[in-house]
Amino acid sequence: MTTANNDNRSAAAAAGDALARPAEPGVPAPGTAGRVPRGALAGWRPDALDIGIVVVVLAVIVAGALTTRFFSLANARAILASSAWVGITAIGATVVMIAGSAVSLAVSQTATVAAMIFFETQQLGLLLAIVLTLLAGVAITALQGAVIGYWAANPIVLTIAAGFAIDGVAIWISGGTTVYPKVTAFNGLNATPLGLPLAVYVLLGLTVGAEWFLRRTTAGRQMYLLGENPAAARAAGLPVARVTVSAWAFFGACIALTGIFLAAFNTIANSSVGGTLSLDAIAAVLVGGTAIGGGKGSALRTLGGAVLISAISDLLLLRGFSTGIQLLVKGILVLLVVIAVHVRSARGRR
Amino acid sequence: MSEAPAAAVSIERLTRTFGGVPAVKEVSFTVGAGEIHGLCGHNGAGKSTVVKMLSGQLTPDSGRIVIDGQAVQLGSRQAAQRLGIALVDQELSVVPALTVLDNLLLGDVRAPLVNRRRAATARCRQVLRDMGLDRLHPQQPLSDLSIGERQLVEIARALSQNARLVILDEPTATLSDVETEHVFAAIRRVAAQGCSVIFVSHRLSEVLQLCDTVTVLRDGRKIATTPSRELTVADLIVAMLGEAPHRLTAARSPDPRADHELRVEHLRVPGRLADFSLTAQAGRVYALAGQLGSGASDVLRALAGLHPQATGTVRLRDHAVPFRSPAGAARAGVAFVSNDRKSEGLFLDKPIAANLIATRLPSLARAGMLSSRRARQAASSLAELAGIPDRRLGEPAAALSGGNQQKVFVSRCLGRDDVYALLLDEPTRGVDIGGRAAVHRLLRAAADAGLIVLFSSTELEELLELGDVIITMREARVVAQYDGGVDGAVLMRDMTHGTHAA
Amino acid sequence: MIRRLPYRPEILIPVVALGVMVVAFLCTPLFNGHALSSFDLFNTFQGLTQLGLLTLGLGLTMVAGEFDLSVVGTYALGGMIAVRTGQSLPFLGVLAAVAAGAAIGAVQGGLIARLRISSLVVTLATYIALLGATSAMSGGLDVTYTNSAATLWLDRPVAVIFSVPSLITLVAFAIAAVIFGGTRLGREIRAVGGDRRASRVAGVRVDRTLVGLFTASGTLAGLGGALFSYSYATANPNPGFQPLILATVGCLVGGVSLAGGRGLPAGLLAGALSVALLRQIDAVTAIPDYFTELLYAALLGIIVAIDAPGLRRGLDRLRAHALTTRLRDRHQ
Predict the structure, then answer these.
(1) Which side of chain C, N or C, has fewer Cβ within a 10 Å radius?
(2) What ipTM does this complex have?
(3) Do A19 and A49 touch, CB atoms closer than 8 A?
(4) What is the rounded distance in angstroms from the CA atom of residue B109 to the CA atom of residue C263?
(5) How many percent of chain A have pLDDT more than 90?
(6) How far apart are the C-alpha atoms of B219 and A284, rounded to whole Å?
């Protein structure tokens, strides 16, 4: 069973299907290279996940072809633009989920606070404001990571608590009012070079950076190990706490970036800026096939997940379906991917 | 009684294979009503597999289980419970979050749907008194109890269910002598009421003391079923080992070049390890011989940083080892191979190559960036050491056999210049013969390369083959230390009933 | 090695939390100058209705070591279904909502038990889908419940401080308490959450228990949604994430551990009541919002610390270190 599954993997990789490729950051083993060429698709028995993703992508393409304006440059831009904010946070969430800390429920609050800090520091200059906001996001989130890493605290309970604390402190300091920027230098962030919002470039850059980090650095590789088997990582003497903190620190930077872009887009910052970011980010990560239990996943696939969700929402919108239907489809998509990923990894284990 | 007046439970030609390797081959025996039947065998002899099939946790490939003349199918634990088969699992299987009373009633098919608290409490007190646990309150949460007390509660649960067959798999491993006496009295009481009992234990003198009949298994086959009054401990040891036990002959003398040592002083783990001191020299293999609960594995876990409550001093190469955290111990040069390679060892879904280099990533990186060339080279050379073909390096570790997995696990700790002491808990548990020999070669080579190797085991051959120094342990204490000149029978005696009861 | 806890967290945490809230509640006249009236209590119990059934459903799954995020989705859908189907026959609407909730719960429970898949992700996906379905049913708008007779009947005070919905909530807690404390099922639920492997070995039907629990939590959430929308005469298609967070706080303050195996319905009631009291205090005094939020954060922070194994390991380490030093000093 396992060997057969493994055949699928190399064949799938050869087929160049980025979404179907397993998220194993394997050491580029000499053996694997030797195995690929035997018959491009010979022995490729696709499993539920492969079939599912092919079916979904085909369905989107077919439905898109039947929908006017879906396959247009403008619409492609719209899809990318709408996936950018959630996507940036989702990249950070991917890293944390891979490292085994499951999810954070304090994302919306952190993004809101980041947006407020960004506007409050505008008069110091745009660059300094961005740097300070990033630092604040890193500090807030890495602190949660430290409690999780050093105390082995439950991430869900802890981030709910952190969400209350962040929100409370933010309202306390700001007095609960909307923050208006005093300078409008931030408008540069709403620029659309080559017709795409700046956030899209940031998302792409971040994805590539995170993917490289996860696969090519010591800390990244340790994140996969820690996420897959925390007890083994601990027993092996890996720096569990340090790795956890660095994953959360990166997540914090991503959330802060999202906060900055949200602030710049809305030109104000109030308590509703964060919106449903927490859940949207988790949905994108899960649709990308990252396992909630940790140890598997990739930033590239999360990007795919975020774009796929956007594309489907966009398609449904163009065909006149309500936001309710869009949400329903998104939920079902998440459910199906989660089941497929689970069935696949459970089968691989036997 | 060995003539089995009424054949209450019998198994007929039971066979079970795991991944092509037979664990139990055509084993048959009969346990009469009221009979206490001992099941003995060395590790890997197939005892656990027989127990699992009889208790509904595994289905046999062939053969049948007959209860009161009727062949039965045991699809699950519930099905077995309904047929009156109670079990004390090898692993402690009580729920700490529940009270003593709740644990006693858990899974009992006769427990009423609606609790009858008064009756249940009265019965619970009675059961506890029979076990010598008068001091416990039925409503006390089990998490307040010591491991021994929890084990007693689990035994009490099985014995109080009015079962037709009670299977006790290593029930006394974590119990003191007094507690064991209470358990034996309770077992005899249920047997006197006509219940059949299967008693699995490594403590051979206990088996002879308690059981009417003893069946010995070796390599998955039944060797003999004999009335226990015709047996001695020595007979049993011979039957279990098959040949005259090995003898530790050529113990290596310490290498004069060995320049570093591991010095452990007064290592204690509350409730698990009373007092342990050892000075181990580089280039030698130290073996800790002890059954489950003897403290042997706790010595290793404490040294590896997995017992934060441990006290004492540990020095390696004249530096203090911060031995209360795994990361600290690893930094000081201690590498640990757990006895549970699935949950505490390998990263099973990750490729073999990634597993081989998992603990040495920093040494393969420059400024935090991994050099894929060096990673590949390291993985390749370690794979060669472990005897795993290069072309398999991309497969997940889960695809390997148990033996090969263990080789990967051990190799992971080798060839590193920042490791000075290698600790292994049961290095060949669940490993086939070939893998065993390979792991032993790896350990010997590691010692020759100047490492301090310290391992724990329950297997006599392994202890004698590999250990330069053997330290026997029982009930959280060291029994004796041997620098050669010891044979299997002596070790078995030390491990099973201490030096005093020869 | 056994840590003898001098207390049981599933009792201590809710008792302390409820005690603090009751004292704070009794002190409200000091802040706003108005004497407490029975109406304050009535409102508190109305607040309990809103959160209580959610807390109970979520808490039951948490005791078994699972986490049912979908309760808020079921709650919203239940409210919408009840309003849609129960305009003339309110009881029919409640029945439909409860049936839908039970069906959703059973399907999720089946998936989680059969595939051994993480309940967090399954119920998260269901939560999103259910909010979508609710929104699609209503076109994304609030739907008004026009049967004002039913609304008035539900909101009428019973025995001064209760109402029909709050009594139903209390009855649900009472039933859960009886099942937990007095039946084999209750024992098995806690066993499944405490140690799943040991439960299987002991002969507990783990899968069946899980399906039952998720069905129960879906049923309770559907019922809660129906009662709430009748009482407020509207069904809101998107209640957001906040009710779930508050219900989770109710569970945690009620002494339930996310790791499973710990918790009692009485504790859950105390937890839900604490949250309801805090909201009532919030409503009648001028205490700033952020104060409440920081209070929640502090409460949860304490709970995190109590349940963190790493913190306990750290304390063990410190204690062992101190002991070693002391022994060494004595030897010298």
Answers:
(1) C
(2) 0.89
(3) no
(4) 25
(5) 47
(6) 52
